[in-house]
Design brief:
The chain is an all-alpha fold. It is built from 13 helices and no strands. The longest helix has 30 residues, at about 5-30.
């Protein structure tokens, strides 16, 4: 294999090496905790991937991870860093909850799409705001998306503690949404709902958009070289606002699926950090929609099997969070090394 071929394989091998390295270091942490890493990993992945209820739980956690990660990915393709997935999840959950609570007497085939659309629009607006500020005002999108997370989280917290709080609720949450706005369960007896199907459909549509449409070419062109794209007649400002709105809308669908498919009401804690995990997933996937699907499944399996690993092998759940963090660290290292290798171009006839 030539040196050029080895360089071309780096985008494929880097995520695999990062995951393997994080699992190896995680095994060391498990040993230090006084447990058997083989037994711990067996319990974790066996429960989350090979048992009926465990796999259903994995799919449940995969749905918001997949949708939000797709939002981060599409922004990255245009050279934008969407750190606001968490807040966009909260806004999407709020939008779908409002439709589920206050729009009544609709058949499910109308009510469900309407609630999903509301979740998408609420998230898209929350994503469009930093897109507008970046495109028109030149404000860094990392800062604005990050700060908007806190506004969204506290907005939902206020609403479920005051005007949307259910009567006699022991903790902050809204009343149940209408049954006609609830997503169906796809694995009877488990928590798996149609949100995962929504995520897979969204992944297919996004792949077609990015790879088979003129708009996808424009998005990629802006991300590759905004100046050249502008000279080619592409509106860079409009493209940035569009991708940030699309990113927010996808994360909004993640929040809508949590309300409509899992909790059936709006809670103060809508997301358990899905928006931040999505950043790691998008970077691990290296711009590949298919890679996002696989990496979302991996992160969902970690989340799903963590408690079982703790019960059966005596390993703290925090080890799983450490593995996730190590995966991000190793992919960052691999990206830096890959960039350095590409700078040093090999000879044409190198072996």
């Amino acid at each position: 294999m030539t040196a050029t071929n080895r360089i071309q394989l780096l985008p494929i091998l880097s995520p695999l090496i990062a995951i393997a390295s994080s699992l190896i270091v995680g095994a060391i942490l498990i040993i230090l905790a006084g447990a058997n890493p083989i037994a711990a990993y067996t319990a974790l992945f066996q429960e989350s991937l090979s048992t009926y209820f465990g796999f259903g739980n994995t799919l449940t956690k995969m749905a918001p991870l997949l949708l939000t990660s797709l939002g981060v990915l599409v922004a990255l393709r245009a050279g934008q860093f969407n750190i606001g997935g968490e807040g966009q999840i909260y806004l999407g959950a709020l939008g779908s909850a409002l439709i589920g609570l206050y729009v009544q007497n609709l058949p499910a085939f109308i009510h469900i799409p309407l609630a999903l659309l509301a979740g998408f629009i609420f998230g898209a607006i929350w994503g469009w705001i930093p897109g507008y500020l970046k495109a028109v005002r030149g404000v860094n999108e990392v800062i604005t998306t990050l700060l908007l997370n806190y506004i969204a989280i506290n907005l939902v917290s206020y609403l479920v503690q005051n005007p949307l709080k259910a009567a006699n609720a022991p903790s902050p949450y809204s009343p149940l949404i209408a049954k006609s706005a609830q997503l169906p369960i796809i694995l009877p007896g488990s928590l798996a709902h149609a949100g995962i199907l929504l995520g897979l459909i969204a992944a297919g549509i996004l792949w077609a958009l990015l790879m088979r449409s003129p708009l996808g070419y424009q998005i990629t062109a802006v991300g590759f070289n905004a100046i050249a794209a502008r000279y080619a007649g592409i509106s860079v400002q409009r493209t940035i606002m569009l991708v940030m709105a699309l990113a927010g809308g996808l994360a909004g669908l993640a929040g809508a699926s949590e309300v409509m498919g899992l909790k059936y009401r709006l809670f103060e804690q809508v997301s358990s950090g899905y928006g931040f995990d999505a950043i790691a997933i998008a970077f691990l996937s290296r711009g590949s929609v298919f890679g996002v699907i696989l990496t979302s499944l991996f992160f969902a399996a970690l989340r799903s099997g963590a408690n079982v690993m703790q019960r059966s092998a005596g390993v703290p759940v925090t080890v799983v969070y450490a593995i996730q963090g190590l995966t991000v660290l190793f992919i960052a290292i691999s990206l830096a090394m890959e960039k350095k290798i590409k700078v040093i171009k090999p000879p044409i006839n190198a072996d």
